[in-house]
Specification:
It contains three helices and seven strands, in the order αββββαβαββ. The chain has about 130 residues and is of the alpha/beta class. β2 and β3 form a beta hairpin.
């Protein structure tokens, strides 16, 4: 009763386990992403209806009302922030940066950071605002 194997193998692949894993990962990311986006507490200025509200793939730099700089939620000097985003650009040359300045932040502090980023070659630097509701 020996069985002879033919040269052909059954190459069927079940996608169900892979779909289950991907669905679980999607659910985890959907739940955890809003928690990661909190950052520091700043009051964004209000602008028109076509405002920049941020980009999921952009690095967030914030300036609070006292003029302190934050990379994500970590307070750092401006020079250190520039060094870190330059290092991040090495991994992604198309890196975008979003500046979030508090409504009561010094305009000079926001423009100082934007200028430093432009000086080191970042072309995609934007300002984050809230939508203005009349």
């Amino acid at each position: 009763m020996s069985r002879r194997r033919s040269g052909r193998s059954d190459a069927n692949m079940s996608l169900t386990p892979m779909i289950d894993v991907m669905t679980t990962l999607l659910a985890v990311f959907m739940v955890t992403t809003p928690m990661l986006m909190n950052g520091i507490d700043i009051d964004l200025p209000r602008a028109g209806v076509s405002t920049m509200t941020g980009n999921d793939h952009a690095i967030q730099i914030s300036i609070d009302s006292k003029g302190n700089y934050y990379l994500l939620d970590q307070q750092l000097p401006s020079d250190e922030i520039v060094k870190r985003v330059i290092a991040m650009r090495g991994e992604n040359p198309n890196l975008a940066i979003t500046l979030s300045g508090d409504t009561h932040a010094d305009y000079g502090a926001v423009m100082f950071m934007m200028g430093k980023l432009k000086d080191v070659g970042f072309q995609r630097v934007g300002l984050r605002t809230q939508i203005y509701n009349k």
